[in-house]
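User: Batch of two.

Assistant: Item 1 of 2:
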Amino acid sequence: MTTPRPDALRMRIELDPGVVRDPAWPEGVSVRSFDPADAHALHALLVRGYSQGGGSVAEFVPWFSGMTSDEEYDPALFFLAESQAESRLAGAALCWTSAFVKDLVVDPSWRRRGLGESLLRHVFATFAARASGAVELKVEATNAGAIRLYERVGMRVVERLGLS
């Protein structure tokens, strides 16, 4: 017997000029695009970030193959936030070319420092510069902390998806 997956919410933000604000990166964090050499570190970050719920990630080989072979994959849209002091990834926003946030993850040790909000604001600015009209994502309906973050940056629920 399989366990039903929780419902999800599709959330969206219209990229009107007044909504796009510069990110305020936490001290000691820099952001850069993905390089295939980052693959193992990024996968480990996703595993750590989802270890307490809010999402899941496949084993490394199917995850990496699935991500990089997807027609919407563009390494320039995989944003990695790196802790300069620790020389490791603190968070990431992985986006598809359709202005969809596939994954937003912050290492548990970096939560509540504004990193998730800064990553989202970076995503919004990037897609606004690409003339996208909106950015969307899906979130588990039970992930109250993530939903609060998305609402705080201006995203709104546009659809409830039953995933059972």
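Item 2 of 2:
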Amino acid sequence: MSAFLLTPPASEPLMLDEAKQFLRVEHDDDNALIASLIVAARTQVETAARCALVAQTWRFVCDAWPVEGRIVLKRGPLFSVAAARVFDGENESVAIDVDQFVIDRASAVIAFPPWALPHPGRRAAGIEIDVVLGFGEAAAQVPEPLRQAVRLLLTHWYENRGLGGETGGNVPAGFGALLAHYRPVSL
């Protein structure tokens, strides 16, 4: 199953003023740089933790419905299923009522009765499911350890810009520990 981002978050887990205060930057000369580092740090935290921080829409694509009637997303937290469609043999999409899905937010699982859903008519990428992932719409809804991980990366990259190589590329101590509780566990 492949996935790609449809709609990025409308806001970041850390606002520019908050980031500047944390960095102890009192001028506006680096505003664009700091804003871009916030986006990069959020993206790095999301990748490392395999979770979306602020609400964003993703499309998951699969070839066929799993026979066990469960789609386990490799990212979370699952907020809602926004849309679903199946493609027939002529590559026409057929919308599926999202009320047929049962959402397990804690496990980022979409459950459904596989016998009640139409089967795709094409062999590859026959099913698309659009989901909203994230802890909520606002920065305040993002758990504080994940916001702190964004701050750590932001600070590390801001203070080590221009150095490149090993010094600028490493993540700060404690970064992994802040993310550990939020990574999905595979059994």
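DSSP finds five helices and eight strands in the chain.
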